[in-house]
Specification:
The protein is about 75% helix and about 0% strand. The chain is mostly helical and about 200 residues long.
Length: about 200
């Protein structure tokens, strides 16, 4: 008789995180439970507690993993796209890719539930947005220095506006199941930051 193949603990942990991430991105933090994750994975809730002491610990691990993956994606954009406007377009593309999968940004969903999140999760969500703002600020400042972007506010303020617009555009595109609504909003946003030839002659 063949013995059942036992999955490594790290593989089980990743599967738990994958399922929980999808549930939060589609239902929100308060819209899923340990029982939902256990049912999808066909395991007991006790086995979930073996990997994560509670929902708060699971949530924090999710946000930290999501943040690190996002930052890796930003590093790749920076390495492959020398043009600041192309970097911003690729940044918006990360959000569009999530929306095409029928999901919303994990941290955007958690921001909606922010007041009900455990303290350690709140810090992790804020870290995601702070790191994104810092990256965008560098791109925006570099683009203005190069003369390809034009804006009057401080780069940090514009970075917040970019994130706010993209997160809001995702939210409003979702009920229509229409990614083009998001893409249109993103194009309008980026076009407003572009330095046009007539500006240079002014």
């Amino acid at each position: 008789m063949r013995r059942p193949v036992r999955r490594p603990a790290t593989d089980t942990r990743s599967r738990i995180l994958d399922v929980a991430e999808r549930l939060i991105q589609t239902r929100g933090y308060n819209g899923f439970s340990y029982a939902d994750v256990a049912a999808e994975l066909r395991v007991t809730t006790a086995s979930l507690h073996y990997h994560f002491a509670g929902k708060a610990e699971l949530g924090r691990a999710l946000v930290e993993r999501y943040t690190e993956r996002f930052m890796v994606a930003l590093d790749k954009i920076e390495a492959s796209e020398p043009d600041p406007l192309a970097r911003l377009s690729a940044y918006a593309g990360l959000y569009a890719a999530v929306l095409r999968r029928g999901r919303l940004c994990l941290c955007g969903m958690l921001a909606a539930d922010f007041q009900t999140l455990p303290r350690q999760m709140r810090h992790a969500v804020l870290d995601f947005f702070n790191r994104n703002e810092a990256w965008l600020s560098r791109v925006l400042e570099g683009g203005r220095d190069q003369g390809v972007l034009a804006f009057e506010e401080e780069p940090a303020g514009v970075a917040r506006a970019v994130i706010s617009t993209l997160e809001g555009a995702m939210l409003l595109a979702r009920p229509f199941a229409d990614v083009s609504r998001f893409e249109s909003a993103a194009r309008t946003l980026l076009d407003g930051l572009k330095r046009h030839p007539e500006m240079a002659r002014a």
